[in-house]
Amino acid sequence: MKLTAHWGSVLYLSSSLLLLHPTAAALCETTTEGLTGLGEEFTFPSKLSIVDFSASVTYATLAQGATPFVKIIAASVQPVVSLGEDGTLTIAPEGCSIDGAPVEGVPSAPSPVQAPVEGGTDGGAPVVAPETPTASSAATSATLFSLPFFFPVNKMTSLFTTLTLLSTFAYVQGSNHEGSCIPTLTIEIGVPEMAPVRQNFGETDHYLAATVDTVTWGYYDPTATAETAALTMASGETVTVEVITHHSSHDYAKMIRGDPAVEEIFYWSDNQTEATKNEPKLPGTGVHLVTGPINVEGAMPGDILQVDILELDPRYNPATGRCYGTNSQKFAGYQYRVGEKRDGTPYVRTGGTEAITVFEFIEDDASNMLYGAPVYMYRFPNMTDPDGNNRTIDNNPSVTVPHEFNHGYNGTLLEEDPIVYPPGYDATFVTDEGGILYLSPEQAQLDWKVPLRPHIGTLAVMPNNTGNYLDEEAQGGASTIPPSRFGGNIDDWRIGKGGTMYYKVEVPGALLLVGDTHAAQGDSELAGTAMETSMTAKLRVTLHKADSLPKIVSTVEWPLLETFDKFVVHGFAFANYLDDLEDPSTIFDEGASLDQAMQDCFVKTRDWLMDVYDLLEEETIALMTTSVDFGITQVVDGNWGVHADIPKWVFDDSGAPYDYSCTTSQGPGRRRRGLLNHRERRSLFAKMVGDDVEMDAYASQLYNKVTASCAACGDHHMRELLAEKLVHAKLDFAHARA
């Protein structure tokens, strides 16, 4: 990451937040008596370094644009605070050698010479803090905190005020506290609220954070109303929505630890029962964390809600500056319907059979996402949750998998990086003999990568019949797993940045819900899940009233997607399973039919084309069979899905040629004469405009020139793609003339 935090500096954070020496002694008791500098707020413009303390941390959210601070509440010995030339604020026990100027209000640090820590080793072994503490090393003498992101500056709604979480941070491995207690420190760290996003994410009219009060776990709440919605917004306004993945529990160290909001949602104390924990109540409910609902002013049943996806950013872990996702080869995956593995052994839905792959998202130097790299793979273990219940399959994401060690970015097990689980995460235990079975790197080499296609898996208006799902097993309302006419868990990778979804409103206020964000997925979502990750979405909602609907949605009763170059119709085995089935919870058996999904998609596509473009049925069928691509959306969500991609070009009367660059239909002649490879384009471009001109900059200038008289063109969300196509068209023309 090379992004700048909103407060104007880069704040680094170690990935080794929880390091304890194997021979650690008991923790010293903190006190406030006889200590100076307590209660003062110390800002740190660059880095925060805690040396030789085991620290209990309270996170406090600050207003947007505020400078991070640390406040010392209590300690077992007098803390020393120093500010280094590089902007590092260091806190260490008095007598510890640290480098930096003293901060007014607390005792100054001694000169940077080796000095033993009070109460240290029998032999008085010195503890020395390096001038520049390094991250992610067991021998490091400091824990560094990092938040290298931009925070949106516009905030229209109140978020959570204070979030208290206990964490035990690293202390110097070089010190030896045998025979004495470990120095302790209680601090409060203030960080700006709102999820970190890229600088070009932009502002929005509203902000909806993901908290225990704004997320629902696994169901569409039948008691939700416009008055009780998490947020209210008007048509035409924009909103930033935080989405937390339910897969975060697959790797505490990478996807939970250090992110206060995620820690709060997944926190499960050892004395909390399953009934009182905010978690999926399976088998009746689903698994997804959905943020909302959002009340849209004036929305009434029969209206159409248009949702434009303007931006979609990964949620970087504040503790590491990295972003991760996981894939679970779930019990719901299609492979279990096949029956047998390649070696002839059966696929069985029992504990220890589901493979989990943890991915890291790799960026270039400009912070552009490049691909997903598999880090390591393991089999989901048999566990007991904090309430003592057995968890045999990956069906309850609120239970954190208790890995003993953190895993390195190359997939190897870092023995020097054990994970210490704080209260709320320390009451889950693996019951498999031998512990968790890791498949990498010994068995799975993971020498491959995944193309990233960020999208929203679950985007829905509240169904008016969610209560139909209620039975003796279900708790709360309709499961978030099956999609239906209201949208929901469609799991179409095309529903990403630049896309627009249309939904028919079913309840007053529409009550929009957002969840289940994915970094990548293939058609079918074969294994039961995609590359599940937390993200932050920037959306614009537009309300179309029932008495004045645009023609493209005038007869729509189902979720329609519009992209830059196509419309996508979504069909399901049951178009409205909550009404169609006597017991909607049987959808996981009844809805497993591609034939029914194809039939539903065919009928919807045929009728929509006839209504919108005034076609005869015969010409509609002719158009569909020659121009429309039908594909499998997913075969894992109970209500299986088929989609139809309708290219807009077939109705374009501008005379523009069809873009064959993404097809296999170009013949040898066309490829030789009309299409250039990358090297040829660069060479021709240099001859046309010179070696010192960047193609992107030239494309932007060309686009602005061509669209100067078009007021709407400059705001189009696909203008970058259009600019690129203009340049390529000009190069192809020059090549053809040569």
UniProtKB/TrEMBL annotation:
Key words of the record: Signal
InterPro entries the record matches: FmdA_AmdA (IPR004304)
Signal peptide segment: 1-25
Gene3D superfamilies registered for this protein in UniProt: Acetamidase/Formamidase-like domains
Pfam families: FmdA_AmdA
Superkingdom of this protein's organism: Eukaryota
Transmembrane segments: none
Any GO MF annotation of the entry: hydrolase activity, acting on carbon-nitrogen (but not peptide) bonds, in linear amides
PANTHER family linked: FORMAMIDASE C869.04-RELATED
UniProt name for this protein: Formamidase
